[in-house]
Each structure stands twice: as C-alpha cells, then as structure tokens.
C-alpha cells in the first residue's frame, strides 16, 4: 500500500481506484504482496463455480446441439446462446485471477460434467474407460488447483 494514500481512517478513494486500475499480470504488474491461502469457504466456492460454469456451458451447448441435430425449436438455440454468454462470466468470480490456470482446471470439471450430462439427459452411460479417464482428469486438476503455491494473483 502506498503511504501517500493512507489517512487516519484508512486508505482513501484514490487507492481504491488505483487498485482497480492496476494490472494483475504482465510487465506493469506490481509485486505480489498478498499471500493467498485456501480456506474451506474459498475451496467450496471455487468448486461450486466450476460446477456452475460446467452446467452453463454444457447446458447452453446441449440446447444448440438439440436444435441442430434433433430439430428442436429454434428458440432452444437462442436460449442456449444466452446461457453460453452467461457461462463466459462465471469463471471471473474464481478467487484466483490466473486465466490459464482457471480454465485448465475447469477442463477437468467439464469432462466429468459432460459424461454426467450425457448419462442423465441422453441415456449415454459412461464405460469403465470413461470413469477412469474422468477420475484421472478431475484428480489431476484438483491437485493443480489446490497445491500450495507462491505468487498467484488473488481476485479482490
């Protein structure tokens, strides 16, 4: 925190504006000052956001797929497109601002949720290889996501 921005009551408005306008990565990013630590609340929130994003992406894509492949009404595709737009915003609520990490980890959730969606809505039961592959994918991304780390940008 810049000392010029402190007052007796705490940081002033200029600091709040400055922190919102400061890049979180790249050559102009400040050095990481916040030490990020997972809490149970953040972990549950993060997993719920991955699941919500998966439901939105798979659901929106499924509605469009049904319109084209199964000749469902065109409004299904429009609704699917709206849901996909909403999906695009969900990962921005993750507690970590590393785009690549957020989307890489989301990929493991996407795999598991895609199989679940296909099974529940289309009756496409996964086989042993699907279960093993999905388990490895999800396990791998959970290790990557929750592994202790240094220098990750925290979403504020």
Describe the protein.
With 156 residues, the protein is mainly alpha-helical. It has two domains: 1-30, no CATH class; 38-146, no CATH class. It contains five helices and two strands, in the order E-E-H-H-H-H-H. A two-stranded antiparallel sheet has the order 1-2. Helix 2 (40-69) runs antiparallel to helix 3 (74-89) and helix 2 (40-69) crosses helix 4 (99-122). It is flat. The two termini are 14 Å apart. The relative contact order is 0.13. The model is unreliable at 1-22 (pLDDT under 50).
Strand content: under 5%
How many strand segments?
A: 2
Structural Rg: 20 Å
Mean pLDDT: 83
Order of helices and strands: EEHHHHH
Give the termini separation. 14 Å
- The low-pLDDT segments are 1-22
InterPro entries: EmrE-like, UPF0060
GO cellular component, one term: plasma membrane
Transmembrane segments: 42-68, 74-90, 102-119, 131-149
Keywords: Cell membrane, Membrane, Transmembrane, Transmembrane helix
């Amino acid at each position: 925190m810049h000392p010029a921005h402190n007052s007796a009551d705490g940081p002033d408005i200029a600091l709040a504006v400055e922190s919102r306008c400061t890049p979180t990565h790249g050559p102009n990013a400040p050095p990481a000052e916040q030490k990020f630590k997972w809490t149970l609340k953040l972990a549950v929130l993060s997993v719920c956001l991955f699941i919500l994003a998966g439901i939105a992406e798979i659901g929106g894509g499924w509605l469009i797929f049904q319109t084209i492949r199964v000749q469902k009404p065109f409004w299904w595709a429009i609704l699917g497109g709206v849901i996909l737009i909403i999906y695009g915003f969900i990962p921005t609520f993750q507690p970590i601002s590393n785009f690549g990490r957020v989307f890489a980890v989301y990929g493991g959730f996407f795999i598991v949720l895609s199989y679940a969606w296909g099974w529940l809505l289309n009756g496409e039961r996964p086989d042993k290889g699907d279960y093993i592959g999905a388990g490895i994918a999800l396990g791998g991304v959970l290790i990557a996501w929750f592994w202790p780390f240094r220098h990750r940008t925290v979403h504020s």
